[in-house]
Amino acid sequence: MDWYRKEIEEVFSILESSPYGISSDEAIKRISIYGLNRIEEKKKKSPFFLFLNQFSDFMIIVLIVAAIISFFLGEEMDSIAILLIVFLNAFIGFIQEYKAEKAMEKLKEMAEPEGTVIRDNEIKKIRVEEMVPGDIVLVEAGNIVPADIRLIEVHQLKVNEASLTGEAVPVEKIARALKEKHLPLGDRKNMLFKGTAVTMGRGRGIVVETGMRTELGRIAEILQETKEEKTPLQKRLTDLGKKLSIAFLLICAFVFLIGLLRGGEPLFLFITAVSLAVAAIPEALPAVITISLAFGAKRMVDENALIRRLPAVETLGSITYICTDKTGTLTLNRMKVEEIFWKGKIYKRDEIVIDGKGESLDKLSFFLKIVALSNDASYQNGKFIGDPTEIALLQLGMDSGIRKEEIEREMKRIAEIPFDSERKCMTTFHEWKDGRILSITKGAPEVIVSKSSRFLAVGGIEEIDRNLLTITNEKMAGDGLRVLGFAIKEWDSIPENLEPENIENDLIFIGFIGMIDPPREEAYSAVRLCKSAGIKPVMITGDHPLTAKVIAKKLGILEDDYSIITGAKLDVLSLAELEERVKEIKVYARVAPEQKLKIVKALQDKGEYVAMTGDGVNDAPSLKKADIGVAMGITGTDVAKEASDMILLDDNFATIVKAIKEGRKIYDNILKFIRYVLASNVGEITTVFLAPFFGLPLPLQPIQILWINLVTDGLPGIAFSSEREEIGIMERPPRNPKESIFSRGLGISILWSGLFLGLLTLLAQGIAIKLNLHWQTITFNVLCLAQLWHAFACKSFIHSTFKVGFLSNPLLFWTIIGTFILQIGTIYIPIFNKFLKTTPLSIPELLIMLLFSSLLFFAVELEKLLKRKRKI
What we know:
By secondary structure, this protein is an alpha+beta fold. Among the domains are: 233-300 and 659-871, Calcium-transporting ATPase, transmembrane domain; 319-331 and 519-651, Rossmann fold, CATH 3.40.50; 336-516, 3-Layer(aba) Sandwich (Calcium-transporting ATPase, cytoplasmic domain N), CATH 3.40.1110.10. The chain has 34 helices and 26 strands. The strands form four sheets. Strands 10, 11, 14, 15, 16, 17, 18, 19 and 20 form a nine-stranded mixed β-sheet that branches. The longest helix is centred in the C-terminal third of the chain and has 38 residues, at 653-690. The chain is elongated, with a radius of gyration of 34 Å. Mean pLDDT is 86; it is low at 223-227 and 355-360.
């Protein structure tokens, strides 16, 4: 339907709505008619097909075929046992993949955006997917348009529609109907389209299309081709898996050939070789990594950090710089007016507000009315709604006896020029009852002073004294106050040209208001923790340099008076010049969001890994460019959130530090799992590969090899994701993301512990044969139980397991204990004896087996002891 051609009354009639929207009950009915307002994703695999996919690996297919052939050749029991183990292995693989998928879906749900609607005659925040045709929606700069909307009212509204039309220049919107037929999307200026970004102003409109019926929904097929993003670690491990697969397959082929040369039975040897390949190839690694990252991201939500892109979890451990906003992130964002400068004098709050009840000084009432009129905050049902700065100004007026709604009846707001970060100010227009117009401009004090030619002094309006105003501003800022300037201008009628350069000049300066925004208590310790972890915190703020300096020194970010630079100076520096100084600068003041991009580039060019915070539309480029873009969950715009990797649900700097700590822990635990599983695989390969060279018979049956893979690789492996963080995790420097996963001795540790495991198993086999013991049962259990002991040893890279505690990770502990009991059951339970070709052991045999299986644990503990001594 050509909604853009219809008068708004006709749109209301068609959609059975009104300027006050629809009721919540009606919205529920409409969801059942129109469906949820979301773009349908490509259909996911059902759990059944996900399970079937576990059998798609070539080696598994070969093993199944070999087992079936074996069955028809009379080896029924062996074949059934092999097929059963393969099925159980597939079931565990399915559970892992299914959990990973569900965890990712949960994260996506948490990141679902919200929008503002009028329902039940109230302004409400609802999930975007719950919007229906007929809803009245409010949009403002920074919002992502939630549906296709026909505009009712606009105030300097501009929208970037590049995602739909390819046109990068923001489109200025109108509210009147357009009569031309077949207008292209870019010319439908009274429409907003789902997925586009509001860059300026605000507006109100009615939802006309949702979900797949929107213009965005029509091109959804293109979006559905987007592939799931893999983390760098997942890519490297997939590549590693391929290389290991080739190496292990060659070894398995060698085992098969050697067996044939020694007169072995071909089908048995073939099944053994294939079983060894299936067990040794670490095909589950990428899936386990996904689970670890996804579950880690889920834990971060409990710490108020919502991960939007999985690779961010991995990158967090590499961050060397955190470039953070001041207001609301390092501070509480609970503004309170402390001082007012008016007619040459600074008044303290106590002189304005008496006993907290609200008695205003007569001489300040004009200024307080100006402050109330140019305010976008409101007080509804006992609650303040709006930006914290605006709320502080509104509260000052209310505490002083000034009621905004009463003043607005005398001086109605008729137009506005919204705030933008480039101008650092905003202007509102108000009409007196006699028809005269007053414009009020407020913003950064130096900007307001520069746009003024006169000011209100004790004797009336005089030529501006810029020196006095600059000194006053610096004094207030030097006391740690956030300062706003106010100016006015009278007009005979509303100007036709509302461009800022035509309006915001030749103003009459009225005064300053100074607000305090105390630092967050937890920010002090978070800054200290950053420094101990080798991470440099940097403050970026639009505030005055003196205000920024006071807060930065309080928090310990700044230790001298020189590591600070202003946006004006930053503009003059070329990128190369900034790179020379960037590591010395701790505070950036009076910086525009666009300049953040320059800071990120300079740090990255110097080899640093940067986390950058932001909340506005103009922060999006720097958030995208940063290694970790961090958007504010409370004050952040939709555009900033869309560009980010992580959202702070509490807008708190300390949450970034907690997320970095969690990121380091997750990566450590992934490496612990890799160390454990690859050492186990090397041990299994070594055992079977070297046995012929020592003149020993084939140590393991095919079914035993598959069993070991099932109970040692599958079960304890996942439990590593629950391991606690390493002692002193935030007292070591960040990890370079380009370094090999086998660096810092991990590769050597995997190799020697795997070889040790294999040789230890062969030694146990040789001694058991020499002493005429049940050697195959002993060999099988030594290899299996040694891996369980090794899992305990892998709980820390350097600290003793006795110090870390066997019970520090209950999930791992009980998984190992459960697997141990199951493994002992393979010796003494008849059904296991039959399936796994084991024999009950005597007490001396059992003790020999337990002794040998524990030796790897003590060998790894000795390695860690030597590492600790080298560090001392």
